């Protein structure tokens, strides 16, 4: 489980997070939905230990991400907002490198790399260097890096940005498979269809706070709307920055 407890973060005079609290449970896909600038990336970066919160804490399976980032990351697969790939490495080398960072060695590492290459159906890419890869191909490599150590928690920042329909479907299938295996999945998005299609629970964020949370049906019920899109607009007070 991921537990976000009263996180605050200020950049100079911008309050990015304002006492943000929510939980993402195992075996569920939790969507962090909010307009541009709502604080989604800031929140995810604190969870994966890249940023220090001013106050509050983020815990992965009870491990504090700020106090023990290495311990927290052991349990975490990260699909970051900018996936920098090592363009001189082949896909296989790259995924193996990440497996190594997570402590997988020799046979165990080789098996994990081959397994994730097979799961994501990227055998044809495996021995190519990633320089010049398309957005969808880069996404698959980033996903392979995130999954290679079979993490119990998976965090994805705007995972379907720039992807075509086929790549988006592959991504969704992988996330559903991971959920079926009990993985705790947290992803951010400002695309409503994506959230509606995938999420068990939605945390609607605006101005660094939780504006509402619940299942898509609960969000409709609490706003008296039939369509999720209308519910979101009512909760946030505007449709600016949210994509249908
Ligand atoms: N390093 C930084 N320095 C200054 N301001 C920052 C920094 N990182 C984030 N911010 C500000 O904090 C606020 C929240 O940004 P954040 O990137 O977390 O939002 P977001 O919900 O992920 O937005 P988007 O959907 O546009 O990616 C914004 O006002 C942003 O400009």
TrEMBL record:
Protein name per Swiss-Prot or TrEMBL: ATP-binding cassette domain-containing protein
Pfam families named in the record: ABC_tran
PROSITE patterns: ABC_TRANSPORTER_1 (PS00211), ABC_TRANSPORTER_2 (PS50893)
Any one GO molecular-function label of the UniProt entry: ATP binding
Keywords tagged on the record: ATP-binding, Nodulation, Nucleotide-binding, Transport
Protein's UniProt keywords contain Cytoplasm: no
Family recorded in the similarity comment: Belongs to the ABC transporter superfamily.
Domain ABC transporter: residue ranges: 2-232
Recorded superkingdom: Bacteria
Cited SUPFAM superfamilies: P-loop containing nucleoside triphosphate hydrolases
């Amino acid at each position: 489980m991921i537990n976000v407890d009263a996180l605050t973060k200020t950049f100079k005079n911008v309050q990015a997070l304002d006492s943000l609290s929510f939980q993402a449970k195992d075996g569920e896909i939790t969507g962090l939905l909010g307009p541009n600038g709502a604080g989604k990336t800031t929140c995810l970066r604190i969870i994966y230990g890249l940023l220090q919160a001013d106050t509050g804490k983020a815990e992965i399976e009870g491990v504090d991400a700020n106090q023990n980032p290495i311990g927290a990351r052991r349990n975490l697969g990260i699909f970051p907002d900018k996936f920098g790939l090592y363009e001189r490495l082949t896909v296989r080398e790259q995924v193996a490198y990440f497996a190594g960072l997570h402590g997988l060695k020799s046979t165990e590492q080789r098996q994990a790399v081959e397994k994730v290459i097979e799961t994501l159906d990227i055998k044809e890419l495996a021995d190519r260097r990633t320089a010049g890869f398309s957005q969808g191909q880069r996404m698959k490599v980033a996903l392979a890096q995130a999954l290679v150590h079979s993490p119990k928690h998976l965090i994805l920042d705007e995972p379907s940005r720039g992807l075509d329909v086929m790549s988006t479907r592959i991504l969704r299938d992988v996330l559903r498979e991971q959920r079926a295996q009990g993985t705790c999945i947290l992803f951010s998005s400002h695309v409503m269809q994506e959230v509606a299609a995938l999420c068990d629970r939605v945390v609607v964020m605006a101005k660094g706070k939780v504006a509402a949370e619940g299942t898509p049906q609960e969000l409709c019920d609490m706003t008296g709307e039939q369509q999720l899109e209308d519910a979101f607009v009512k909760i946030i007070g505007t449709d600016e920055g949210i994509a249908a």
